[in-house]
Amino acid sequence: MPKIIATVGVTGITRDPSKPSTKKWGDQGVELVAGRLDDKDSLLRAFQGANVIFGFTDFWHYLPDPNNHKGKAIVDAVAANVATLDRLVLSTCSDARKWSNGDNKWVLHFDAKAEAVKYLESTYPELWAKTSLLQLGYYVTNWRSFVATPKKLEDGSFKVSIPVDGDRKIHMVNPAADAGSFVKALVELLAGRHLVGAGSYISFNEWCDTFSKVNGRRCVFERMADRNYEELMGPVVGLELEDMFKYFDKYGYDGVDPSVLYPRDLRIGIKYTTVRDFMKREDWTSIM
């Protein structure tokens, strides 16, 4: 859990403030308030009088909610408090269907987040004028799950396989460590920024090379054949992740969206974690 710098009036909205996982935030000075994204009244109460709001939704809630009603609920509740608001920082993802001209239509967890942004821009112009967007990069922590987990081979070396070109550079981020730094920067700057928050811009060949140097174990990348994800993980999640990597392969992580900025473009000091720094601190014993 990232450490929070002591500040005044920080409120965190959670479904259950009594849970141990959320109580830790209270120990760092965060006022915990009960709220649910499917309960508009709870959001209205929580947002009342706030001058800065960071809104985000779980990637995977799109499965029962492809139109991102929960993201839109955040927007509606924030708009009701726009008079006191200085800044909304809204978490989003690349609009894959738009930037691929319809070629990649199954990256639903990206497109669902983009739906909330389009809804905000078209429905609440006053709020839109106070908004900046944060698009966090590909999570470096994904190796811990089914995505890009290094597989140990008989000779003790490792192999990473996903359906993307090994030389395609992707923006990568340590979300738990660095999301707060990117949000803070967007609060301090004028509204209207669209930031891709990432600590490294590297390929999976470079990822494997870094893994080798950090762990002293040879690691190679091998492109996974198309449709393998769908066969391994089923027709919903597998198809979606495969299409996501195809999108990365052809259009990059952000789809070459001309509105996006990167940390280097902001010209202010932002603390972030590189992939190498993350790997040096990570516990790899589970796969060794």
Give the helices and strands, then pairings.
Blueprint: E1 11-14, H1 20-27, E2 31-34, H2 40-47, E3 52-55, H3 69-79, E4 87-91, H4 96-99, H5 108-123, H6 125-128, E5 131-136, E6 138-139, E7 151-152, E8 158-162, E9 170-173, H7 175-188, E10 194-197, E11 200-202, H8 204-215, E12 219-223, H9 228-233, H10 237-251, H11 263-266, H12 275-281
Parallel strand pairs: 1-2, 3-4, 4-5, 5-10, 6-9, 8-12
Antiparallel strand pairs: 7-8, 9-11
Helix pairs in contact: 2-3, 3-5, 8-12
Short description:
By secondary structure, the protein is an alpha/beta fold. Helix content is 38%, strand content 17%.
Main sheet: which strands, in order across?
3-4-5-10
Span between N and C termini? 24 Å
Mean pLDDT rating: 90
Oligomeric form: single chain
Model regions low in confidence, pLDDT < 50 over at least 5 residues:
1-7
Query: What does the overall shape look like?
Result: globular
Count of alpha/pi helices: 12
Number of E-type strands: 12
| Major sheet details | 4 strands, parallel
Question: In which range does the helix fraction lie?
Answer: 25-40%
Q: What Rg is obtained from the alpha carbons, in whole angstroms?
A: 20 Å
SSE topology string: EHEHEHEHHHEEEEEHEEHEHHHH
Pfam families: NmrA
Family: Belongs to the NmrA-type oxidoreductase family.
Keywords: NADP
Domain NmrA-like: 10-278
